[in-house]
Design a protein that fits this description.
5 copies of one chain form a homopentamer.
Chain A: E1 2-11, E2 14-15, E3 24-30, E4 36-45, E5 54-59, E6 76-81, E7 84-87, H1 91-97
Chain lengths: 99, 99, 99, 99, 99
C-alpha cells in the first residue's frame, strides 16, 4: 500500500456512470516522517477520509475490493486512515550500523 | 487514477480486431497546477474527452471496466473529465509547517 | 498503452511450453516526436509488427486479451501499429501559455 | 518480488472492515547487500515477520493469494522471510568482465 | 517482459506454504547489450535457469500463468531463457538519423 496525505478533491461531472456518488481525493505520497514526496495519485475514498489526514491506498485490481469500488473502473482506493506509525528501525541508525 | 491533459490522438489502422472504433488519446500527466509532467500514456476515451481537457485515467485491469473497454486488450481508459480541483493542503503551506 | 518503436527480436528456445510460436519483440519507448526514451520492454507481437515500426503496447493482465496471448504467461503485447500521431496541444505552446 | 526490510508498523483504527486483525508493516526496499534504497511500501504480514527482518513482498493481485489476504483490498503482502542470499554474479566482477 | 540476468538465489525457510519447493532467483535488469541496470527483482524460476543466464520475466498476474506458479502468491516468474537478441535498429544509428 502507498502511504499518503489527502490534500484535496477532484470534481468531475462528466464521468463513467458507475462512478456516480464517489468521492475522488488527491493524495500526495509521504515518507515515514509524513514529509511530502514528489508523486501523487487520485483515489476513491471508501472510509470517510478528510483533508490533511494520512491514509493508506490500495492500487490496481485490489483497489476494487472495497464495498464501494467493486467492478468499478477505478485503480486506487483509500482503505484505511492512519493513526500513527511505529518506526523500529530508524534510517539513521541503520546507516550508522552499516559503517 | 492518473491526472492528465489530452494533447493529441493516435491513428492506427492495423490493430487487434476488438479495438475497432475506439479512440486512442495521448494524455500527458499534469501536477495539481495542471503543469505538464514528463510522462504520458495512450488511453482509450470512454467519456468523449477532447484535446486540452483535464481527465482522470484508470490503468491496469481497472481500465477494462467501462462499457467500452470490457475484455479488450487495453490498459488505460479515460473515465472522467475533470471540472476543477480543490486543493485544501497547498504544498507551500505544508512545507512551511514542517519548519 | 505505451508508445514505442520495434528495435529487435528476442530468441529463446527454452521457454514455457505455452509460449511456442510466439514472437518476442524488443520495443523501446518513444516520446511524441518518436525520439527514443530510456526504457524498453519485450512484448509479444499480435499484429505483425516489423523492425522500425511505431506500436502501442498493452501491459499487465490486459496483455493477455488478444487472440494470441490468452492465458499465457506474458505481460506485454503489441496490439496496434501506429500510422501517425496528431498533436493538438504542443508542449512548447502549453509551456508558453503558462507564463 | 520485492526484497525489503521491515522497519515499522502502521496503526489504523478506521479501515475497511475486511482488514480487521491484519498487521500492516512498513518495509523499506534493500539492495542485495541489504543496504536501504529510497522506496518503501506498506504490506500485510502473512508469515509473522518482525522488525529488522529481510522479507519478500508480492504485489498487485498476487498480494491477495495468501490465506490471509484473499479477496481483501490490499496490494502487497509479505509471503516469505529471507534467511540469506547467495550472489553468484557479483556486480563488480560483472562490470570488470565488460571492460 | 523484463530482460534480466540471473545473479543469485534467495533462501527462505519461513514462507507461505504454497511456495514450498519453488526456487527464488535474483535477476538484475539488463540493457540490450546485457549491461547491468540499477533495478533487480526476485522471480520464481519455471524453466531451469542458472546463474549468469539472460532471461525473460513476466510480472503481475501474468507471473501466475506458468504450470508452477498458478494461484501462488508470486508476482514475477522466469518464463524463458534468452539465446540471443537481434537488434535491427541500433540506438546510435537511430539517434544519428534524428539529426
Amino acid at each position: 500500500m502507498l502511504l499518503g496525505r489527502v490534500i484535496g478533491t477532484v470534481w468531475a461531472t462528466k464521468k463513467d456512470e458507475k462512478l456516480e456518488g464517489m468521492k475522488f481525493l488527491i493524495v500526495r505520497a509521504v515518507d515515514t516522517d509524513y514529509k511530502p514526496l514528489a508523486n501523487f495519485v487520485v483515489a476513491v475514498d471508501s472510509v470517510g477520509a478528510g483533508a490533511g489526514e494520512i491514509v493508506l491506498i490500495a492500487q490496481g485490481s485490489s483497489g476494487r475490493l472495497t464495498w464501494l469500488t467493486k467492478d468499478k473502473p477505478v485503480d486506487a482506493v483509500i482503505m484505511a486512515i492512519v493513526d500513527k506509525l511505529d518506526i523500529e528501525v530508524p534510517l539513521d541508525e541503520w546507516e550508522e550500523a552499516l559503517q
